[in-house]
Every structure is written in structure tokens, then in C-alpha cells.
């Protein structure tokens, strides 16, 4: 059993209106949990005295600097493949061309988490699927050692049994970063084999580009606004978290500090906070709400509550896009309580950001 995270739907900003919610990286969302592995990690961490407080670490191993803007995890170790995480472009390892074998494939520009690139695949019958490539660190990739490990083109590829139509693989990089390649059906598409075939075709592209031109670059996301330079783990404090997560772990920073995870060592509660670029809020399910002067949504789901709120609005080829902070609180208890807790956390996080733009 493993936790499935950072997959196709997880990498793409959240539930479109008229679809079933499922675009959040919630622990166990697609039925594979890291039960035993997570418990072992927690026990070892407690034994080492790691979980004595909610101080946390950033993706580069340094203590979080709070919400002050500044460049996150600027450079990977020697021999790195990704290099400067602030300019590494996940779309440089993606080509919709080979995916046309499965349907009309096109980039989902500015519709994915900061560390991901997504492609929409549409069939003539109106059904769709989403493929994504997400940059991750080894530290955040909890299922790295739980799959079938094989060598291809000099890289270790980790594959898993597909579940609920979702198929994903990991590619280990020599700089201790990881690529997660994932595909998930949407809008009526059936067939897990299709999803794994999509991932296989996309993997061939990613490996060829790693061997050829390598990881390309893009302008720093901070060129548009300050959010990408603010470590996500600094947006929530121990005081914020203790009210909703008993025995909370240290924060686990995600790639480039563009996300953060907290969990309970004695229960099932988790909080995930991730930076996304997305469509306008009207494209998504949820009840409108305000978070420290920022518009957002509250969307209940089974065992969780998902909240996106807007930090910045901008235009791409005449179409509105948003930079959002997306928070998911998962745990036991009535739905109303989950959403009240999620709302309190999202409001606290929003209050620590600079004024929206």
C-alpha cells in the first residue's frame, strides 16, 4: 500500500465544474497508502528526536525562513540534472506530439502546480485524460522505494500497479530529484491500460530529452509575482496547526519550497499546501469565500476539505489565469468540522502573504 501523490489530477489545479472532485494530492486519494512505511519513518524520527517540535526543514535542508520572500533552494548538488530549481522548466521534458496517438493532445498552459507541466488528451467521443510531469525531491516522494525498479537509458524508473484508472511512474535523477510521470482519465474515459500507455510514451520523450538537451529553463516565476519566492512551509505556524492536527510532524517541504505537508504521528490528519497556476475560480466546484481579503472556494470531499484562494491574477494570450494557494485538510470527523478547520488554516496562511495582485 502506498500514498499516491502528485499525479496527473493532483498536478492540475483542482475539480472542474461538473466533474467529480479528485484533483488534490490527498493521502490515500486513489487507494494506495504508505501505511507501514510512513509509520516506520515516524517511529525512527521520534527515536532520533526529530519530531520534538514543529520547526521543519525546507527542501534544501535549511530551517524555513518564514514567509519572507527570497529565492528557494537555488541550486541542486554537483552533477545535478535540474540545476536551478527557480528556472527549471518541467515542460521542457514534455512533448504532446507522441500523445496524439491517444487523442488530440495539447499543453495545459498555466493550469498546473508551479513544479509541474500538464497535457490534456481529448478523444473524439468527448472523453479526456490528463498527463503531467512533476518535479519532486526524494524527501517528498514517499513511495520511491515501494515500486518495481528498472534501469532505462541510465536512469532508474520506478513503476507501480495502476489503480482506479490512475497510472504513474517515477524517474530518479542523479541530483536527488525525481520526475513523477502520471496519467488519469477524466470525463468518462475508461481504460487503465490507456493511462499506462500514455505514461510509457511520455517517459520515452522525457528520457530522450534528459539525454539530449537536458532540462530546459523558463523565466523565474517570481518575475510575475512574489509567491514563488515565499517558502510554503512558512505560511502556517505550530499554533495554527496544533488546533487541527494532534502530534503534528515537522513540515515537509516540496520541490523549490512551492508546497508543504504536515501530518499527525498519532492519527490520520494531514494538511497539504501547494502553489498552483489555474483557471479562474468560476471553472471549479466550491462555495465562494474570502480569505484575508483574497477570493477563494471551499469544497468539501469525502474525508477532506479543499480550499484554493487567489494570490495573483494575470493574463495569458488574452485569457485570465490565477496564481493560487491550494490547501487540503484531510482527517476524521464531520465534514463541516473539516471545512471549518481548513478555512481557519487557509485564512491564517493568506494573512502571511503580501497583498494580492
From TrEMBL:
UniProt keyword annotations, A-Z: Membrane, Transmembrane, Transmembrane helix
Biased composition (Low complexity): 61-80
Region (Disordered): 61-82
Transmembrane segments: 33-55
Name used for this protein in its record: DUF3558 domain-containing protein
Higher taxonomy: Bacteria, Bacillati, Actinomycetota, Actinomycetes, Pseudonocardiales
